[in-house]
């Protein structure tokens, strides 16, 4: 389930809408740069795929089952820009066609589920894929970790939004354990499915895994369906340049993963350090209901909602914020250097998530007028 | 629709010395030469992997020739005339779901002419005419995925006819059709006053519709002649991995035709 | 989600609401929801007024009440959450039926339930009276970036095709005696998902070829234009404007 109307107050929804619009605008440009005129059909088909795959049930145990959220998968398979677009379009259509997710909460939903998930997952995947030794196993590990972290990261982002603009005062301290705990569980399921799916694609069409471009050497383009491979889509060999920056990558990534993962986990597993009232009865009850009502893989929207408020959330948010900032800084640094050095277009596009990273945080001007979100994505055209 | 050709009319399609290798180095075409006069209906036969689809993608400039030339109605295929070429060469792809990408039949048929700048009542008339040619006018406002497979294939033909092409190129037009749809499509294709190049494995269909056939094998044109004669040449056929369906004898069919 | 997405909400009809141009409806619903969300929760009567407004729209659109209410079920998971709020929220507490509930939490639950339900109800009405195609045209008219509209359009067009492929893959699995029963079987399912991605992506490439073959050069030709007269705008905007009046009253009275 997605965030409904009335959950986040109007000003914060508006700000989230502007942020989402900014991120979508950046993604539109990025995707166009990568796919040029093929953007519409390819992103449309991938969006349809995400939409369909969310209906694929993965049985867990005892009759319960879960399904993919798909943000991390989209990011790894088609890259951050197209990934953000696909998930955002899926959310938009779900809101309009199925009344799933409030229209005023569209900005929140896109910011959390499309932008944060996708960008975090891509940054981690890309970084790990470079650090680890080459090979399919490494890519699988990277995909697993990326999806694993992306889900709690989205939860933490939601917590931040809720902390600022939530319409109900849910106590701060009770949050952390369940919030992160539940989302790590969901994340594990998401991670397993994502890693297996990415592995399955790499086995057949490694060239289609965007996140693995330039990594699965030597990259071959299969001419399977015969109707493919317009010249020019072949990724430029970025390997040489990549190697020289491995150290930088190593440091930056280790830092961001540690921050994103461990800081929030630390906060969650040691709630006493932040708040003494961890085991309140009402709260325990709430947690149990989740365990019973939903499989660990079920939609996470409702859990986002139920557990939210500052303490644990803040820690997680700091972690994720740091991840995004650190990751972006690394990407940016690498890109700058590479642009100065070799600078082929495709290497630049492969390392460009730096632009999406800061987008949601920097493009939040003080537009608090509710109608500013008249169409959450409207300003994108002028941006 | 026999080729009533006068010297003044340029051939609908002229391919000379066409060679092409994919970016990965795999070479698919090794010097293709062929010429199709205006109004002809020609079958392009060949085993899987012979390069048929690769050849088709050269005809409207999606792939660019590594060597050799393609000329459509006197116009060389190249960056300069790309829009004009794509209007003149109408390709009907194998899977109608790939071809019908718009939300309704009408918009799909209108896509080509509208991309060429047509608007308003002209566009509407063009759409209805093209749909009428394939007998699908009453489905104009339906979404494509609500149609049967045979209907979708006919609409796919209409999307291309709406562009009033010089030459209609069909990739496996009879695949996945039930016998009735297959016959309906044959009737439609026969009724059209347009040059047709039909890429197919369906040898009886080729014989039924196309007086002339080309065999593409290992990236070159291996044979060019009247369809009945080619199909009747057992050595030629087996040499290029082409097999007639069980019990089908091209000679007896010709006698009927 | 899940099964909820298998069917669409559109309900064919010829009411004045159906006939409104899509962008006016989109605007009206959006403004309405914004107004609802901005209403102070203490003004309970205002929410009743909103519900009445929506009911009159539903009546004008000839959407049967039962149909409408059934479609509201999509918000059930979040109703469950709202009911939890009084137990977990902070602040002064009150006794209801022997349970200690947070006053603040009660207000919160009311707030979320009322606004969320009205939001879903309005969206359902929109979806029930507007065809898919129309929605896309409306978004286009509202100056959503054209590329985004195109992506949405392709997603709609191929959503069924891909869901159908997925269904066929499931049937193929089951025909060979495979039934996913637990985590052990995820590998097989993920392989299907991977194959589905490859098929989708390759189809995207083929669709692109088909588009290019018909003269596509990066932007969709304009075929349909949704236009609205002043009268239609006025008619459509009656809903949010009335709601706005209610909202303002709510602010001044509370």
TrEMBL record, chain A:
Entry annotated with the keyword Plastid: no
Subcellular location: Cell membrane
Transmembrane domains' residue ranges: 7-28, 40-60, 72-93, 105-129, 141-164, 176-204, 248-267, 313-334
PANTHER family: METAL TRANSPORT PROTEIN HI_1621-RELATED
Domain PDGLE span(s) in chain numbering: 246-336
Region of interest called Disordered, as start-end residue ranges on this chain: 341-383
Protein's membrane topology: Multi-pass membrane protein
Pfam families assigned to the protein according to its UniProt record, in alphabetical order: CbiM, PDGLE
Keywords, in A-Z order: Cell membrane, Membrane, Transmembrane, Transmembrane helix, Transport
Protein's name in the database: Energy-coupling factor ABC transporter permease
Species the sequence originates in: Streptomyces flavofungini
UniProtKB/TrEMBL annotation, chain B:
InterPro entries to which the protein is assigned, alphabetical: AAA+_ATPase, ABC_transporter-like_ATP-bd, ABC_transporter-like_CS, ABC_transpr_CbiO/EcfA_su, ECF_ABC_transporter_ATP-bd, P-loop_NTPase
Keywords: ATP-binding, Nucleotide-binding, Transport
Keyword Transit peptide: no
Keyword ATP-binding appears in the UniProt entry: yes
Pfam families listed in its UniProt record: ABC_tran
Gene Ontology MF term list: ATP binding
Similarity field: Belongs to the ABC transporter superfamily.
Protein name, as recorded: ABC transporter ATP-binding protein
UniProtKB/TrEMBL annotation, chain C:
Keyword Magnesium: no
Pfam families xrefs: CbiQ
Segments passing through the bilayer: 43-60, 72-89, 109-128, 233-253
Localization (cell): Cell membrane
Topological category with respect to the lipid bilayer: Multi-pass membrane protein
InterPro entries in the record: ABC/ECF_trnsptr_transmembrane, ECF_CbiQ, ECF_transporter_component
Protein keywords: Cell membrane, Membrane, Transmembrane, Transmembrane helix
Top-level lineage group: Bacteria
Descriptive protein name: Cobalt ECF transporter T component CbiQ
Organism this protein belongs to: Streptomyces flavofungini
């Amino acid at each position: 389930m997605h965030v409904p109307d009335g959950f986040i107050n109007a000003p914060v929804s508006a700000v989230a809408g502007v942020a989402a619009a900014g991120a979508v605008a950046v993604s539109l440009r990025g995707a166009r740069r990568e796919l040029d005129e093929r953007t519409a059909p390819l992103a449309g088909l991938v969006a349809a795929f995400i939409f369909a795959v969310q209906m694929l049930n993965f049985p867990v145990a005892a009759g319960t089952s879960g399904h993919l959220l798909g943000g991390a998968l989209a990011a790894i398979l088609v890259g951050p820009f197209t990934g953000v677009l696909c998930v955002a379009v899926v959310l938009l259509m779900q809101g309009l066609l199925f009344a799933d997710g409030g229209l005023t909460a569209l900005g929140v939903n896109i910011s959390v589920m499309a932008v944060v998930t996708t960008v975090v997952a891509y940054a981690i995947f890309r970084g790990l894929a470079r650090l680890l030794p080459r090979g399919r196993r490494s890519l699988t590990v990277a995909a697993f970790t990326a999806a694993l972290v992306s889900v709690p990261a989205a939860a933490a982002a939601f917590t931040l939004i809720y902390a600022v603009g939530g319409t109900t005062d849910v106590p701060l301290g009770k949050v952390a354990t369940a919030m992160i705990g539940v989302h790590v569980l969901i994340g594990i399921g998401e991670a397993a499915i994502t890693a297996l799916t990415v592995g399955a694609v790499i086995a057949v069409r490694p060239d289609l895994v965007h996140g693995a471009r330039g990594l699965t050497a030597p990259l071959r383009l299969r001419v399977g369906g015969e109707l493919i491979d317009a010249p020019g889509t072949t990724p430029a060999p970025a390997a040489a340049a990549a190697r020289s920056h491995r150290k930088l990558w190593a440091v930056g990534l280790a830092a961001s993963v540690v921050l994103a993962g461990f800081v929030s986990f630390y906060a969650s597993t040691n709630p006493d350090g932040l708040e003494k009232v961890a085991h309140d009865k009402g709260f325990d009850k709430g947690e149990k209901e989740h365990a019973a009502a939903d499989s660990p893989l079920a939609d996470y929207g409702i859990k986002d909602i139920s557990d939210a408020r500052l303490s644990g959330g803040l820690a997680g948010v700091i972690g994720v914020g740091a991840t995004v900032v650190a990751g972006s800084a690394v990407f940016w640094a690498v890109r700058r250097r590479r642009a100065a050095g070799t600078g082929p277009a495709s290497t630049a596009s492969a390392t460009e998530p730096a632009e999406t990273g800061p987008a949601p945080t920097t493009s939040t001007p003080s537009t608090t007028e509710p109608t500013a979100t008249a169409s959450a994505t409207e300003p994108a055209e002028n941006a | 629709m026999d080729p009533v050709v006068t010297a003044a009319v340029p051939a609908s399609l002229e391919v000379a010395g066409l060679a092409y290798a994919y970016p990965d180095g795999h070479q698919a075409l090794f010097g293709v030469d062929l010429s199709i006069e205006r109004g002809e209906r020609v079958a392009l036969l060949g085993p899987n992997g012979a390069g048929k689809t690769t050849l088709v993608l050269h005809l409207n400039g999606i792939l660019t020739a590594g060597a050799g030339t393609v000329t459509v109605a006197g116009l060389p295929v190249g960056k300069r005339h790309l829009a004009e070429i794509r209007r003149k060469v109408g390709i009907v792809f194998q899977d109608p779901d790939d071809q019908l990408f718009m939300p309704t039949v009408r918009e799909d048929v209108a896509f080509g002419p509208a991309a060429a700048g047509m608007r308003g009542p002209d566009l509407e008339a063009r759409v209805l005419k093209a749909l009428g040619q394939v007998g699908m006018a009453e489905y104009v406002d339906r979404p494509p995925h609500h149609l049967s497979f045979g209907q979708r294939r006919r609409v796919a033909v209409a999307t291309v006819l709406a562009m009033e092409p010089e030459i209609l190129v069909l990739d496996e037009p009879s695949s996945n059709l039930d016998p009735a749809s297959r016959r309906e499509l044959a009737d439609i294709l026969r009724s059209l006053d347009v040059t047709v190049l039909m890429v197919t494995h369906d040898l009886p269909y080729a014989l039924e519709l196309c007086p002339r056939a080309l065999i593409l094998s290992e990236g070159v044109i291996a044979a060019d002649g009247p369809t009945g004669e080619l199909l009747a040449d057992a050595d030629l056929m087996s040499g290029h991995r082409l097999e007639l369906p069980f019990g089908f004898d091209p000679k007896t069919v010709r006698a009927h035709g | 989600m899940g099964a909820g997405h298998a069917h669409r909400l559109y309900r064919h009809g010829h009411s004045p609401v159906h006939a409104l141009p899509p962008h006016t409806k989109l605007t009206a619903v959006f403004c309405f929801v914004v107004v609802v969300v901005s209403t102070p929760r203490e003004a309970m009567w205002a929410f009743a007024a909103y519900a009445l407004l929506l009911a009159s729209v539903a009546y004008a659109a000839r959407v049967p009440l039962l149909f409408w209410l059934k479609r509201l079920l999509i918000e059930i998971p979040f109703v469950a959450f709202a009911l939890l709020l009084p137990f977990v929220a902070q602040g002064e507490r009150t006794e209801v039926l022997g349970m200690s509930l947070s006053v603040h939490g009660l207000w919160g639950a009311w707030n979320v339930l009322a606004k969320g339900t009205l939001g879903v109800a309005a969206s359902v009405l929109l979806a029930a009276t507007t065809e898919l195609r129309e929605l896309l045209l409306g978004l286009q008219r509202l100056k959503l970036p054209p590329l985004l509209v195109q992506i949405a359009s392709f997603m709609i067009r191929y959503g069924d095709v891909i869901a159908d492929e997925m269904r066929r893959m499931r049937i193929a699995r089951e025909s060979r005696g495979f039934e996913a029963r637990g985590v052990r079987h995820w590998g097989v399912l993920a392989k299907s998902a991977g194959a589905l991605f490859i098929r989708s992506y390759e189809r995207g490439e083929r669709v692109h070829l088909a588009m290019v073959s018909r003269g596509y050069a990066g932007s969709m030709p304009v075929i349909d234009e949704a236009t609205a007269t002043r009268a239609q705008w006025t008619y459509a905007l009656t809903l949010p404007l009335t709601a706005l009046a209610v909202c303002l009253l709510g602010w001044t009275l509370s």
